[in-house]
Write a structure and sequence with these properties.
By secondary structure, the chain is mostly helical. Helix content is 45%, strand content 0%.
Length: 353
């Protein structure tokens, strides 16, 4: 039995004209918007039904984090205050939403809503967020339009999880399960370096250290580090998926799985396998001055804005004596290995539900 309160549309509520599930996001988004009516964005009138609710131990108080298996961690104030913290973040984002499309990709800039943890735990209403974004979109707000698309991606991945449960343990496109990922002690050492933020690629290391320190990672950087794991290190995307599941405070099975399969090219509407992020280029484009890198890799703080993206290549003398690893892989050579690795995939047809 379903108790829908996590998405706007779930399971079989948005289907193709043939009655099947969508496997590509844009047609799904268009159908989602066509189906949308004020009812779906309205608050549910729950007050009239509260007297009929069955008794539960929760009526005596909500269990603490330790009671439900979470380890103690220092949370930033807006995460430790439940719905009140979510409200503070939402109000702050309302003043920035119109610039979301311009600022969202830059980790050193206050661009995202930072509401993902609250969406994951239900301490903010998805209907309220979508209602605000949709109303602003209709008024011509480009930032709101792009943010609403991100909320629709959540619904999309949840219906993928419902219709294609096999994708939660294997590739959404089963032919990608034929890929032979690196394995053995060397692969495990590379994975450990990735987890610990010591790959020698500053943008990757800063992102992984942010995750380890805060339980959060900027969305652009999630794509960068996932591409690096699968296409530079040649490691199974499921290794990274599991690590994110353990570390992210906003972990959501459907979204996490969908994001990793997008990066590894094995998912629905995924990045083509031959498009491989260059971590240095991504760093230069989205953290040009190195502000984000300096925050999480303070050992590189004295480098110039140009050198900080590839320190051992661009400032070898200045790096002498600095406790920072050399790159664990040559990106150009890794790219060629990835193109060869993916040659086993002969089809990109969508699987049957």
């Amino acid at each position: 039995r379903s108790f829908k309160d996590h998405v706007i549309f779930e399971r079989r509520e948005v289907l193709t004209a043939a009655g099947g599930p969508y496997g590509v996001f844009t047609p799904y988004k268009n159908a989602w918007l066509r189906k949308l009516e004020p009812f779906y964005l309205s608050s549910y009138p729950v007050e009239r039904y509260t007297a009929a609710l069955a008794g539960t131990p929760l009526a005596r108080g909500v269990p603490g984090l330790a009671d439900i298996g979470f380890e103690p961690v220092e949370l930033t104030p807006h995460l430790g205050r439940g719905s009140a913290g979510g409200e503070v973040l939402f109000q702050d984002f309302l003043d920035r939403m119109d610039r979301y499309h311009e600022a969202r990709d830059f980790p050193a800039v206050k661009g995202p809503s930072y509401l993902s943890v609250h969406l994951r735990f239900g301490t903010v209403s998805i209907r309220r967020l979508a209602r605000e974004a949709h109303g602003r979109m209709l008024a011509g707000d480009r930032g709101a339009e792009v943010w609403l698309s991100e909320l629709i991606w959540r619904d999309f991945y949840h219906q993928v999880m419902h219709h294609h449960p096999h994708a939660m343990t294997g590739a959404f496109r089963p032919e990608y399960d034929a890929i032979r990922w690196e394995s053995g002690p060397e692969a495990e050492a590379l994975f450990a370096a990735w987890c610990e933020g010591r790959t020698g690629f500053p943008i990757v290391d800063a992102a992984m250290r942010q995750l380890k320190t805060t339980g959060y990672m900027h969305n652009r950087l999630r794509m960068v580090v996932a591409s690096f794991l699968t296409k530079d290190l040649g490691l199974d995307w499921r290794w990274g998926e599991r690590w994110f599941a353990e570390q992210l405070l906003d972990f959501d099975l459907a979204a996490n799985n969908g994001g990793w399969q997008w990066a590894s090219s094995s998912g629905c509407d995924a990045q083509p396998y031959f498009r491989i992020f260059n971590p240095v280029s991504q760093s230069e484009k989205f953290d040009a001055e190195g502000r984000f890198i300096r925050r999480y890799c303070p050992e590189l703080a004295e480098l110039s804005a140009k050198a900080i993206h590839a320190p051992w290549e661009r400032a070898p003398l200045q790096m002498q004596g600095v406790d920072y690893p050399r790159p664990v892989v040559d990106h150009a050579a890794a790219r060629e290995r990835t193109l060869a690795r993916y040659q086993v995939v002969k089809s990109r047809a969508l699987p049957e539900p």
